[in-house]
Structure formats: C-alpha cells, structure tokens
Amino acid sequence: MPEHIRPIVDPKGERYYNHFFVNEDTGYAKIYLDTWEKAVIDEEFDRKDFVCWIRNPSRGWGLCLQRLENGIVKRFYPDFLIIRNVTGVGYVIDILEPHRSDLTDNLSKAKALAHYVQKQPSAPIGRLQLIREGKDNITGKKRMKRLDLAKSAVRARVMQLQTTQELDNLFLDDSMVD
Fold first, then answer.
1. Does the global pTM surpass 0.70?
2. 78-101 burial, b if ≥16 CB within 10 A, otherwise e?
3. How far is CA 92 from each of CA 20, 33, 50, 85, rounded to the nearest angstrom?
4. Which of 50, 88, 91, 96 has a 20 to 30 Å separation from 165 between CA atoms?
C-alpha cells in the first residue's frame, strides 16, 4: 500500500461516510456505484457485523488477482473489500465481486477467487463472493445471488467447471448460493 492514499472523489458519486478512506476535512468519500453495485453495498451496510468498506481501485495499489482466460494471464481487481467484526473471530475481510452474467470473464474470475483463498489459508478472509443480480427461485423476487468461494464445497464445484454455462447453472442451484 502506498504511504498516502487520497480519498475517492467522483463528481457523479454519492457520499459515503463508512468508506475506509474518507476525506479528513469532509468526513466522507464520494463514490459512484451503478444501481446493482449500490444494492450489494446497501445489503452489506445492513449487516450487524459491518464495519467499513473499500472500493477496490482497478489501478495502482488495489488488490489484484490473476486469472487465466483463453490461456492468457490477466489482472482482476475485485470491486469491494468489506471489513467486518465477527463475534469470536475478530476482524475479517470479505472480497466481493458483483458481476454481470453476460460477460465472458465470469468463469475465470470465479476460479481466480477460488485460487486466491487456497493460497491464503491464514489470511483473515471471511466471504469471497462472485455476485449476480438474479431472482429467487421460489418467490421470483429480485435479489443478489452470492456464490461464496470461501466455502469449500462451492470452491470444489467451481474448480471442476469448464464452461460459463456450467457456472450459470451453479447460480441456479439454491444449495450453492446465499
């Protein structure tokens, strides 16, 4: 991490007082989120163990994972880092990647998250989620579907997948998503 990090100020953004990097003078960071990124963050704010969050920058000092797509190693910057204080555990960091299902890099990002958690067994990682906008299979209501790769059963299934269609099917399996 660099010695000095400037708070985010996006003229189109909304004020967030619970971002990890707020402006010392104003007490907030001004960040633009699209509608469903905002829905993901709003769900996080409602958690009792939520402390703060970071909009992971896609350039510079941000958390960068490696993913393999069509035999080429590419960079991957998950969108959000969530800091929570879990009773009996302490502080944990969640890595969340809201991602549209129509993009071709879904499978490579899911596998990158799975590889990351396997390489970081002692890190204080809580949830490691690929998130899609979806519908509840029973009620039909819109909700965020979360594939948590920190769970060994989910991770094992993802590591066996060969196609994006197989990943899509995993998101339809309510036993695999939160």
1. yes
2. bbbbbbbeeeeeeebbbbbbbbee
3. 14, 23, 10, 6
4. 96
